[in-house]
Amino acid sequence: MVRRHRQRVDGFDDDPVSDDLPFTNPTSVIPAVGGVHASLSVFPTGPLGGSVAYDNIRVFVPSVADVDPPILALPEDLVTDATGPGGATVTFDVSANDNVDPNPEVTCTPPSGALFGLGTTSVSCSAVDDAGNTSTGSFTVTVADRTAPEVTAALDRLDDDERRFLARWTCVDLVDTNPSAVGTINGVSIANPTEVHFKARDGHPSARFTDSGVLKVKGPSLQLNVTCIDAAGNASSALAVVPMAIDLGTLGGTFSQAISVNAQGQVGGTSNTAGDAEQHAFSWTEQGGMSTSAPSAAPSVAPRP
Asked: What are phi and psi of 234, to 5 degrees?
């Protein structure tokens, strides 16, 4: 942009001299006019111009309008885990830069630090400078339930009776206040809690309910399996087991002691035998029972690592 410039300098004739001065940048150096130099560092902004005197040169300063909106700096779309039934409190940083206003006003809806519900929410932001120039933008916040419930399973003995147990469980979720839970004992679905009578025996397990609601179980072990699932499909499980008490025998002696169990479930230990003062090593399997080795030998099965 070129403005006409009129100047009068002492010592020159009184006729005004007109020169074209370039005003193409808010920071300009005015060329020498009649041997006198002058400079302008910054043009004022606003609807009206004005005149400024520099070394006997009076220059008309044009107005410079602020027409550029601020530039918003927005985060990428956010994904966070829910911390409760209402969702999660989410914080984020949004800022703006402006070529004139050093502190443009930035607002977002919902604001940073607000409680965001489950699902995806659009956050709309705007920045306004002193001249009223506005820029807008948006991003999304997704609150997801990705945390599985916490579940426990227990088989509590009743009245120190080795055969009577109370099967029970707990299932707690951060988001879902009523997660679903399924409990089974040896494959039979049960309520929470359920009284169970257990009789240990070899062979195929069996389970049935009595008319009073007690579950009677026969088998090598008593197993309570619990699976808990929340509304988002997150699942967790727990297991409680009461093993069958097994008589290892004594190889005809008076004493036996288990020492180790290997990866195949074999038991290794020592046993006194009749008429022999030294201990004999033995191993045991459910199919073959106990077998012995030389006196004082190490157990015939390797310990479980």
From this structure: -70, 135
Phi and psi at residue 238, to the nearest 5°: -145, 155
CATH number at residue 130: 2.60.40.10
- The answer to whether the predicted template modeling score (pTM) of the entire model surpasses 0.90 is no
| Amino acid code (one letter) for 166 | L
Conformation bin of residue 287: beta by default, left when phi > 0, alpha when psi is -120 to 50: alpha
CA dihedral of residues 214, 220, 221, 223 (deg, nearest 10): -80
- 156 and 134 housed in the same domain: no
Per-residue model confidence as pLDDT tens digits over 163-178: 899 999 999 999 999 9
d(CA 53, CA 7): 10
- Is residue 156 domain-shared with residue 234, that is, in the same domain? yes
Separation CA 117–CA 82 (nearest Å)? 8
CB 205 within 8 A of CB 218: yes
CA 78/CA 120 separation, integer angstroms: 9
First CA to last CA distance, the chain: 87
**Cα–Cα distance measured from residue 75 to residue 245, given in angstroms and rounded to the nearest whole number:** 62
Tell how far CA 202 is from the center of its chain: 47
CATH of the domain at 186: 2.60.40
The CB density around residue 164, as the number of other CB atoms within 10 Å, is 15
> Does residue 251 fall inside a structural domain?
yes
Same domain (yes/no): 126, 195: no
**Selection from 177, 140, 171, 158 nearest residue 238 by Cα:** 171
For residue 82, give its domain range.
71-144
Distance CA 145, CA 168 (A): 26
Summarize pLDDT for 49-81 with one digit per residue, the tens: 555 555 555 555 566 788 999 999 999 999 999
